[in-house]
Structure formats: structure tokens, C-alpha cells
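Researcher: I'm preparing a figure for a lab meeting and need a structural model of a single chain. I don't have an experimental structure, so a prediction will have to do for now. The sequence is pasted below. Please return the structure as C-alpha cells so I can convert it later.
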Amino acid sequence: MKYNLHTHYRSSELDTLAIVNQDLLAVDLTIPHFSLGIHPWYIEPALIEEQLHFIENHLQHPNCLAIGECGLDKKIEIPLALQEEVLLRQLLLAEKNKKAVILHVVSAYQEIIALKKRLNLTIPLIVHGFNKHQQVAESLWKNGIYLSFGRALLSNTRLQETFVAVPKAFVFLETDDDQTITIAEVYAKAAELRPAIDEIVASNFKRVMNKE
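Model: Understood. Here is the structure written out cell by cell.
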């Protein structure tokens, strides 16, 4: 079994468990495994309360494995203070419901770490699509934050070195919104870099997503 931590498309791959990121404007509860969250790019002030209410009401759906993707992005026009408010409320929902959180983070890693500490969060936080250097990776995993690697792992040699350095308990794999690659391809590259990657990711997924 392969585990795709984060994708935007329903998987047709055999022997793959994929967490599909749902569009809150078109949620399909029949998708076998999904996440629900307010992405910072798509924050609409008039919809926030309704969307948070929807998320809260569906977090216990058997197919909902995580909140997300949500997070902070310093390179968009939506005010960071508003992004932080929306993220904070989703983190509190996740803590209350004991759900993992899949995070979109751009130039705001220290803010994520600070939020985790301030809220004293016990639920897993996973930065998806990680493609930064090892110093950033270390700051995250040393604060108990997981890292998910996708397409960039196939060709970015610096990222490959970082991937090897990450403690095995903090590693996930994904395809995100890229339909030109499969999770099998990501696994194949990961296996070149780290032996037993199948067992590593399976163990992490089962533990973090409470799928033992």
C-alpha cells in the first residue's frame, strides 16, 4: 500500500490511499479519504463562519482524516493577520477533534512553530510540499512538525539531501495538485534515497492518521 498524504484529485491508482483535499464549495463525501480546510489563498471574509461551521460538522465523518490544507502564505495579498485568525480557529478545531492538520506554508515557518507552541498543540502538524533547505527542515522536525515531499524530490538534489536527513518518523510523500506524476514515481525516487521507504511512510501514516 502506498500513502499519498495530499492530492487534489481522486486517485485511480491501485493499492494507494490518498487524502484528497476538498474544495469547500463542492464537497464530495463519497471520496474514500479526504481533508477539509480553508486554504489561505481562498479566504473569503463573508464565508469564514459558514465554512468553519461546515468543517466542524464534518470532521467526524469516517472519510475525513485531516483538516487542511490550511496555513499561512506571506506572498499573497490577503492580510497575514486574517490568515492567522482563520488558521488559529482551524487548529483549535483540530485539537478539539484530535485531527491531523495539513499545512500550506510560504515564508512563515517560524510563525507556524510559534503558533504550535502558543496553543500547546498535541495534534500532528504536517507541512505539505516541503522544498526548502535543511535548516528550515530541522527547525520544523525539532519542534515536532512533520514534512511531506512531492514532485520537487524527483529533481532537486539539495532537497534530496534534506529528505535523507529528516528523521524517519517525520516523513510523508504526496503528489499535491500535479497530475503529471504519480505517487508511485515519488515513492520510487524516495526509495533510491532511503531504504524501506514503504514501511517508513506506512508506519507514519497509520500513527498520525489514527489508522492503526
